[in-house]
Amino acid sequence: MVLSSQPDTPIFPPDELLSDEPPLETTRHLKQLILLLTCLERLWNDRTNFFAGGNLSIYYSIRQRKSEDVRGPDFFVVLDTERRDRKSWVVWAEDGKYPNFILEVLSDSTAQVDRGLKKQLYQDVFRTPDYFWFHPYTFEFKGFKLNYRHYEAIEPNDRGWLWSDELQLFLGILNEQLRFFTPEGALVLTPEEAEIQERQRADQAEAQAAVFLRKL
């Protein structure tokens, strides 16, 4: 029997790198991310070709090293990929794909980086087509579209909403939260909101049926 002289070295699967992001600063930040994620997941429930992540690390080292070149957008979406759970987004294990859409939820301690360093990174390295930011306390809200090599500000519509070409959705502020809206202007509901709406429709239909029967 031939014994190997090489020491046993654990192999860390490249697509199983754990996220290494700090906790969100406030409950309002957390609720905003959960809101965006649950709304998009519900809207695209029948789709199998996207991944949406919140407060999740993106590893993008050209040398495929988990110890370097890592960033964690607050919310991002990758299109034309397999819809499945991931512990992080590892670019070299995902056919070199970077996010199509990124949104940062600003805070007093991160806003300068989000407006500067991260914007430059997403423009020059990630080449992410749509980049947005939103402050859940001051309601600062901006969006940028990659035009060739540079981000250009997205002009708001008459409601103050900004259009995302990548998601084919509007983003706008409603009740102090950032929400998705369809191209037709309908609010993208949370599962709970959709359930309430369906219940209200059922109650209304039942009431109308009762009125009709009384008239017979």
TrEMBL record:
Gene3D superfamilies, A to Z: tt1808, chain A
Region (Disordered) location: 1-20
MF terms (GO), sorted A to Z: endonuclease activity
Pfam families: Uma2 (PF05685)
Sequence ranges assigned to domain Putative restriction endonuclease in this UniProt record: 22-167
Keywords: Endonuclease, Hydrolase, Nuclease
Source taxon at top rank: Bacteria
Database matches in CDD domains: DUF820-like
Name listed for the protein in its UniProt record: Uma2 family endonuclease
